[in-house]
């Protein structure tokens, strides 16, 4: 973890007399312009860039149930001397439609023979010395005449054993049973593999072959990768939007995300191809599937763990309009609507309800306190509005307290956006979900986007945004300071208009450096490391310093939204009695800024400064330099509430000022 604050004891940056002719920045904490939602800054998770399997879901075995399009993808068989049928793929078909395939191993005790299967993991397996690893599998014996033993091994790229165990599953008499074993790694390796070697004689069937590290989030068996979740928890997000994104829509409706298939026993959750498997020819991902070990129950649990409001997004009866554009006819939409109603019951219903009982059976009797739900993702056109109206009517009728979030399409402007924005506001949806992936200049020029928005009716959810630098789409240029600084400047406009924009989240959230389809991304991982990008540092600074009320801040009587390359917003925190001023200087020169704190008195003569800055706009955090762009915290001594601040080139700063009660 390399995102710690660099602590500097004191500095003497800003305490000079104010030049007589300079135009001051006037901040008046006594003039509250908007209440800030406690959910204001959140995170958006989508299973893209190996975000779930191979990402936050800590399962180490790829294709554990042999349900990939190629049943043995991820596995390498070693069968010497070769025997036909030593390991075969079986299919139960209608006997188990959710998980039909398994493998049958026919072992022989012939001296010198080798029969093994090795799993490559998700771009390898990260193994840590002295850490426990937990193996499990489902198995059955075709008959009672067997003495098969299984040698379990983590191995390095040269085949050296890094830890393992030898097991002999008890005879199951033709009945599927579960076997577990644990062992400790003897060395650390970033690209390990897992091998099972079979000895003895007889036949055994295997399914759901699984391996998890001991150190999952909250030490939950079969849980999530702790270091990735910790970066989310460190942000203290107000909400978490899940599970996507475009995977909600699916390439076609058959490929859409169906939440009911992601709950219950792991072995009964039906795997599907991830739509990012086939989306980008320049980033092929033939092994990208969704096992749903990370399902809706786990998403709700994660939200609860990190103190965030859950925000599930559901399919509205429309597949991706850039792909198949498949539609459910209106007279066949009822099952989709029922899924939405049942989801609310699953999240909030008591244990006497059908779906509340299912939640309780999974280990969570208390409700998850769902308050909002998204219908559709980046859908558009009159066909979307028609389906949204049907969903909205049904949800509001049965659950009037649930807030509805609706899509404004793929773009933040143009005829498509204008039609949706007008239609959704006429429907009085609670939130209009706006998305913008644009160049840094767009973010700078749109910092005042919401100044003229109506204060009445539907609020705005900035559900997906990221500045896309002009640099090429390569892993080495994934998230530079130019992009992050433009986002920081833009977000001053969201904060200033907190009565219009009440939720915001960057996207995408995670990316594996060897398995990404889309960049830039907020957090990058490899098998052993997790780093927050410069954009992560900006988002975290906002999330941890959101305050309770936006307050008046101006220069020369105008909001600071680009004039002289300066952007600013200010909030007060009624809980801590602090004033928080955020200033972005996107110019290449230092700017001397007089600051006048009006209407209140400061508590003492210390201003806490948290600075994000880099002289090179193309700079980025990397696995080699994870702390290249991180907050630097300084205690600044000031003589009075009228002082000057030296805004460094290409900088974003938070000034924290204690106020007298």
TrEMBL record:
Domain Alpha-L-arabinofuranosidase C-terminal: 463-651
Lineage: superkingdom: Bacteria
Pfam families: Alpha-L-AF_C, ASD1_dom, CBM_4_9
GO MF term set: alpha-L-arabinofuranosidase activity
One of the GO BP terms on file: L-arabinose metabolic process
Catalytic reaction list: Hydrolysis of terminal non-reducing alpha-L-arabinofuranoside residues in alpha-L-arabinosides
Keyword field: Glycoprotein, Hydrolase, Signal
UniProt protein name: non-reducing end alpha-L-arabinofuranosidase
InterPro entries associated with the record: Alpha-L-AF_C, ASD1_cat, CenC_carb-bd, GH, Glyco_hydro_b, Glycosyl_Hydrolase_51
Signal peptide range: 1-22
Family: Belongs to the glycosyl hydrolase 51 family.
EC number, as in UniProt: 3.2.1.55
